[in-house]
Design a protein that fits this description.
single chain; about 450 residues; alpha/beta; Spore Coat Polysaccharide Biosynthesis Protein SpsA, Chain A; UDP N-Acetylglucosamine Acyltransferase, domain 1; 2 domains; 9-stranded mixed β-sheet; 27 strands; GlgC_bac; glycogen metabolism; EC 2.7.7.27; ATP binding; ADP-Glc_PPase
Amino acid sequence: MDNVRDVAKQTLALVLAGGRGSRLRMLTDSRAKPAVFFGGKFRIIDFALSNCVNSGITRIGVVTQYKSHSLLRHIQSGWSFLRNQFNEFIDLLPAQQRVDEEHWYQGTADAVYQNIDIIRNHFPKYIVILAGDHIYKMDYAAMVMDHIHHGAPLTVACIPAPRDQATAFGVMKVDETGLITDFIEKPKDPPPMPGDPTRSLCSMGIYVFDAEYLYKVLQEDAENPDSHRDFGMDIIPALVREKKAYAHDFTKSCIRNRGNKDICYWRDVGTLDAYWEANMDIASVQPQLDVYDTSWPIWTYQVQMPPAKYVQDINGTSSIVRNSVCSAGCIISGSSICHSVLFSAARVHSNCFLTDAVVLPFCVVHRGCRLTKVILDRGVELPRNLIIGENPELDARRFYRTEGGVTLVTRNMIKKLRETEPELFKDFDNYRSNRSIEYV
């Protein structure tokens, strides 16, 4: 059998990063879901791309479609270190109507099919298909080795999940050998795992195909007028019925937390509540996701900025920061920050109290604000003494409040608030910063 290094060199990874991401609401108004900021300095797509590079898979295609400018710019700026002369690359594959000059990508399977000529030109033996919108650390080469061991043309990565959450995923049944015997996409009543009625076995949206077999099934799918052109709805169920798909247990390839080897961390941050919770986990004392592990680094692009700084206000009050992440370029002046994540160049003025807050890059929180369980989108600037997170009815009227009680604030919301409640912005222009930043 080939060794892991040889297998990685024979593998091409395709990251599907073209989804609308509508469940993240206004966070994806101007950017694709994989381009959304996460964890203080990263973008969501950095985790899938870092897994590829750390696994030794350095031939990567990123399939994009909706609102992809921010995503493309991030990849071009932060992922240009791969060397083409060593057959390493990240190939950007936007929708180009390459096949029939009529349709954009109609589904996940169609997105791969429309780039099949480009994929063939790289002569891969195995193709790993990934979602670009999940947070996890995984050795894809180990999964490819498992795929080779089973000898079937398809392997699907799987993870147990609570049944009430499994309705958002493809759910499978497997036999004792790992053969998938049934696959249901987003069932209303997910079938339980054998011996555990509280959980279901869910697809992670990670597939390994024998390349030649993938070309064949994509061609057949393209010729089927009844197909949804989707891996989860069409391709995977068909191969399961033919008994050609095996499950790969995530525990075999998960890169575990150094402090707790029992944890296999994987999160779908597709909703605002899930996105907020995952960021809060980064800020916890012992986060389940270890982003400080230098043996499996998360690569990204970040503008060069000075270190974070904590200063006293004009009255000599010191800043207090507890269980929080403060990224480069942040300045905290005489304020209290508790269990929060502050991204690059966030500015918190005096006498502010931030608790359970996710503050994206270049936000400014002016004097006297109180924020609880809030997400500030990039570039938001709050007027003095604004209180968010303490009055659910008022928050829902002014901003967007989730069922889980998280309040999302965007620049457009602040603009409308200024029109409807101008008294909040009295003397605001006298204190706001003069900046020229492109916010995406």
